[in-house]
Amino acid sequence: MVLSEISQIKHTTTNNFFLLSGPCAIEGEEMALRIADHIVTVTDKLKIPYIFKGSFKKANRSRLDSFTGIGDEKALKILRKVSETFHVPTVTDIHTEPDAAIAAAYVDVLQIPAFLARQTDLLVAAAQTGKTINIKKGQFMSPESMKHAVNKITETGNEQAIITDRGTMFGYQDMVVDFRGIPTMRQYAPVVLDVTHSLQQPNQSSGVTGGRPALIGTMAKAGIAAGVDGLFIETHFDPANAKSDGANMLDLSLLEKLLTDLTELKKTVNTF
């Protein structure tokens, strides 16, 4: 099983969904440790397998003056500190082939951004690190086409692939999740639903992406009911002042109630 191969992952025998969660971007050490501490406490209580998420840099930005990071090595060292402090695995996204080897020295899971899901050289470079690879489904790709993205990982000799659905473009400024794609993609690899990015409203005239965070609970519950293996939820203790994707992030104070409800729902789904 892919999940059990990830270093330091806990609670893998509970038959619960697994969780990738954390801030959109690493803004500093204090904020990362504060968010991780809260999520680890909640996920240990609920027996949820957990991977801390944080981008060490943000390459896909709407405007030139958008926040891109605090420095690659500095952010990667913070991700390593989170892992060492709380004994949990970490995931970060990569954007270029050299990023793969650099990030692999610090984190347990490499994430391929949705816009780059067809980039063969990037997928191969990621697979060659031997790390687990989380491929986000391109907003422009069908569920069936993700088979080929997964094959690029497995045919490189790495069996550790995960697919994350983060919605499909609906017009210019909205995202839609087609839950019919969940069972299709589960034929190729474990499937995660990216709850928060699925609620983005991109391409705003201001150059700042919008979102609909009030629907996070609805989207997450639908994902569990549809049979996803895991959930991806970006969260922050101050979303309004987060430096990236604050408009669609979950307030950290709301996470425990949501995960408690989802755990109960998962128990019911497991009976079918």
Task: Give your account of this protein's structure.
- With 272 residues, this protein is an alpha/beta fold.
- The chain is built from eight helices and 13 strands.
- It has helices at residues 29-46, 72-86, 97-104, 120-128, 146-154, 181-185, 216-226, 255-269; strands at residues 18-22, 50-53, 90-93, 109-112, 132-136, 161-165, 168-169, 175-176, 191-194, 200-201, 210-211, 230-236, 250-251.
- Helix 3 (97-104) links the parallel strand 3 (90-93) and strand 4.
- The longest helix has 18 residues, at 29-46.
- The radius of gyration is 17 Å and the shape is globular.
- The relative contact order is 0.15.
- One of its GO terms (molecular function) is 3-deoxy-8-phosphooctulonate synthase activity.
- Its main location: cytoplasm.
- Pathway: Bacterial outer membrane biogenesis; lipopolysaccharide biosynthesis; Carbohydrate biosynthesis; 3-deoxy-D-manno-octulosonate biosynthesis; 3-deoxy-D-manno-octulosonate from D-ribulose 5-phosphate: step 2/3.
- This is 3-deoxy-8-phosphooctulonate synthase.
Give the beta-strand count.
13
- Element-by-element helix/strand order: EHEHEHEHEHEEEHEEEHEEH
Number of domains: 1
| Strand line-up across the major sheet | 1-2-3-4-5-6-9-12
Query: What fraction of residues sit in β-strands?
Result: 15-25%
Instruction: Quote the average pLDDT.
Output: 94
Globally, the shape reads globular
The CATH superfamily is known as Aldolase class I
**CATH architectural group:** Alpha-Beta Barrel
CATH class (first level) name = Alpha Beta
What's the helical proportion of residues? 25-40%
Helix count from the secondary structure assignment: 8
Q: What's the end-to-end separation, in Å?
A: 21 Å
Rounded to an integer in angstroms, the radius of gyration calculated over CA atoms is 17 Å
CATH topology: TIM Barrel
Main pleated sheet: 8 strands, parallel, barrel
- Which regions contain 5 or more consecutive residues with pLDDT less than 50? none
Main structural class: alpha/beta
